What does this fold into?
Amino acid sequence: MKDQKINFNIAERYFCTNRNIKNITMEKFALLARLEAKPGKETEVLNFLKNALPIAAAEPDTDRWYALQLGPATFGIFDTFETEGGRNAHLTGEIAKALMANASELFSTAPVIEHVELIAVK
It folds into this structure.
């Protein structure tokens, strides 16, 4: 069993000297939102998500932001943050405000937003 343990000192030295990695930081916090479009509103939801990309890109504490289509009327958003403060800032930001302001018009059910703790990121 000893041979199966990871030598974190070797891994740490690798990451500290690897030129491709500038900071040894990892996103630890995320949000996963599931959105169900009302019948006939799928294109509007798709456009809403596409138009949200520049807003997410301008948020300094949002590391990664993904818009997803999981099915014909099922969409999602997954975003990651290094700090809980960044996640909280995103939850009170422009995308969240627009999402909630348009929820009754676009979605058949209220958006489900889950707080996620990331355990490994590549």
